[in-house]
Amino acid sequence: xxxxxxxxxxxxxxxxxxxxxxxxxxxxEEGVICAGWTPExxxxxxxxxxxxxxxxxxxxxxxxxxxxxxDILNLPQGWDGQDKSRMRELSISEVARGAVRDAxxxxxxxxVLHARLAR
Length: 119
Fold this sequence. Notes:
5 helices, 56% helix
């Protein structure tokens, strides 16, 4: 898919009024904004990594999404140990499955962590 076609699909989602939660959101934003996939991420209202830091005084063993998913949600790692820095070597369907799994885990993790913060 060409970048302009992708941008046309991404921009309404990332620019919408819906709250957007992330895990290490600044990294995610850099990946989509600096690369030109969308001009903005509007209403990023929560960040699971920052919640994890706040709940653990920055002493958690790891601040990676995969580790938090295993430790807090008791789920297996979504990427099965694959090196995410080598994503360009994966098929688009593998990347898409991993991204959807990450998004679902991020939502579940943020829900749990933000509820803990509220308590």
